[in-house]
Amino acid sequence: MNDLNAAAPDSAAMVIDMQHVIEDLQIDEEGYFELVDVFLDEVAPIRASIARALDTGREPFIRVCHELGTTLGVVGATRGQRLARGLERTLRAGEPVDLPIAAATLLRELDVAAQILRSLRT
């Protein structure tokens, strides 16, 4: 099995926890990379759903945060997962959130995770 830290920059270890996913889902590395491939195929639609949610308001944005938190968690993108879940909790609590800044932050985290995962595939 490849060591994640050897396959990607040191910062990847803070962003992607491949080993946790493998252990949690009881899959092998090949199974993990099948999940990664599905995730990478969904990046553009996820970006579009974030943009639509931003245009349609708080409730759709809450759903997108929930879905993104789950999706990022499936590939072990723990930092993004925590960010999305934290935004979801904050929005559900009715606290003020600057949605454009939140969307930009989610998009950036999605892109970072995708970039690292693509680098692991090569």
Tell me about this structure:
The chain has helices spanning 4-7, 10-15, 18-25, 29-56, 58-74, 78-92, 99-121. The chain has seven helices and no strands. It has a single domain, classed as Four Helix Bundle (Hemerythrin (Met), subunit A). By secondary structure, it is mostly helical. Helix content is 83%, strand content 0%. The two termini are 15 Å apart.
H and E string:
HHHHHHH
CATH class: Mainly Alpha
Number of helices: 7
The helix content, as a percent range, equals over 70%
The termini sit apart by 15 Å
Q: Biggest β-sheet: count, sense, barrel?
A: none
Contiguous uncertain segments of 5+ residues: 1-10
Any idea what the CATH architecture is?
Up-down Bundle
Structural class: mainly alpha
- Using only C-alpha atoms, the radius of gyration works out to 15 Å
> What is the general shape?
elongated
